[in-house]
């Protein structure tokens, strides 16, 4: 039996065909560690994971019940930015650090957000349809109703890594940018050419509202009908973050009744959506299947990052990215300084 036993739900989540754990194991070589798959039902998973040294979370919720049954777990590692599949509060109470990969897919998601911004603004799908349906002469008159992009206002709700990367891309287009993020120092916004604003100011002043709030309980249905009613009739709503942060029924109402003009959505409240979800038949919506983070490097990058986090903690070191860093203060894990970088993982 290996010295370190890492348990993960059987099957895969956000993975390419073929499966396997070769990429995760690269960083674990020499540690006498093994990754073992466990049943995905709660009872079966608990039976397999109760004495595990680590949990590689994917595919199923890691609930308070599961966490409460872990007797020897040193870390719960996720191969995603979002951590909503793990009860982080329960893990914190149990003294277990939870790691994620917050910086691995930032560029892809920011690219996707800019794609949706431009495609919705210039009505790309609409224009394509006109050509295919032999309505060539309708294309120019439709766009003559739309203002120039330069000088329009892009408003961010939450100004984390992805939003900052979007701001970097949007600046050369001449967009004025504002952001609502009560947890962020305003000077950081100004460094990105973004002005601080209240939530109501973002909703009422923006020509584009880009939603980036995290998947946390306090952010569930953060945007409601009263917020969409504040938006300009010509405004466009973008979401490449998390679907449940938006009251989807209110968004559908806003789109169908003309409170706002358009939406570009990579995420929905329920995924995949029901076949009778009205949003699927709306001409003023561009959709993608929660694919903003996808690229050729996606699977390899996140798997190697998971392996690195597991390896660090199993060696008694602090992980690179911890969503509940307070637990690290009460552990025997050692801080580390990566060679060649100017700062440690928790600076």
Q: Major sheet, described briefly?
A: 7 strands, parallel
Strand order within the widest beta sheet: 8-7-6-9-10-11-12
Number of domains: 2
User: What general outline do the C-alpha atoms trace?
Assistant: elongated
Count of extended strands = 12
Order of helices and strands: EHEHEHEHEHHHEHEHEHEHEHEEH
Q: Over all CA atoms, what is the radius of gyration?
A: 22 Å
**In terms of structural class, how would the helical and strand content be classed?**
alpha/beta
CATH homology superfamily name of the largest domain: NAD(P)-binding Rossmann-like Domain
Mean pLDDT: 92
Low-confidence stretches: 337-347
Count of DSSP H/I helices: 13
N-C termini distance? 37 Å
CATH topology label of the largest domain: Rossmann fold
CATH class of the largest domain: Alpha Beta
The assigned CATH architecture of the largest domain is 3-Layer(aba) Sandwich
The helix fraction, in percent, is 25-40%
């Amino acid at each position: 039996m290996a010295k370190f036993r890492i348990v993960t739900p059987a099957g895969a989540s956000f993975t390419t065909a073929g499966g396997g754990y070769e990429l995760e194991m690269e960083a674990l070589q020499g540690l006498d560690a093994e990754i073992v798959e466990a049943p995905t039902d709660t009872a079966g998973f608990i039976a397999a994971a109760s004495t595990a040294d680590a949990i590689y979370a994917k595919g199923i919720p890691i609930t308070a019940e599961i966490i409460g049954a872990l007797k020897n777990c040193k870390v719960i590692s996720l191969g995603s930015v979002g951590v909503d599949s793990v009860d982080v509060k329960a893990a914190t109470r149990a003294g277990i650090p939870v790691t994620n990969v917050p910086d691995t897919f930032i560029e892809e998601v920011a690219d996707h957000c800019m794609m949706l911004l431009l495609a919705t603004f210039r009505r790309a799908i609409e224009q394509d349809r006109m050509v295919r349906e032999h309505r060539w002469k309708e294309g120019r008159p439709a766009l003559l109703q739309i203002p120039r992009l330069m000088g329009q206002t892009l408003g961010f709700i939450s100004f984390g890594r992805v939003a900052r990367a979007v701001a970097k891309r949007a600046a050369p287009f001449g967009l004025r940018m504002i952001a609502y993020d009560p947890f962020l120092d305003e000077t950081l916004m100004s460094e990105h050419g973004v002005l601080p604003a209240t939530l109501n100011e973002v909703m009422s002043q923006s020509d584009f509202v880009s939603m980036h709030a995290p998947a946390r309980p306090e952010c569930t249905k953060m945007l409601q009908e009263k917020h969409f009613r504040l938006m300009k009739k010509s405004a466009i709503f973008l979401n490449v973050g998390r679907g449940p942060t938006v009251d989807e029924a209110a968004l559908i109402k806003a789109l169908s009744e003309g409170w706002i003009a358009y939406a570009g959505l990579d995420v929905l409240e329920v995924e995949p959506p029901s076949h009778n979800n009205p949003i699927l038949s709306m001409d003023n919506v561009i959709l993608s299947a929660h694919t903003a983070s996808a690229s050729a490097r996606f699977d390899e990058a996140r798997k190697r990052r998971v392996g690195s986090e597991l390896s660090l903690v199993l060696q008694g070191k602090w992980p690179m990215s911890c969503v509940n860093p307070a637990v690290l203060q009460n552990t025997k894990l050692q801080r580390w300084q990566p060679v060649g970088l100017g700062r440690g993982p928790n600076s």
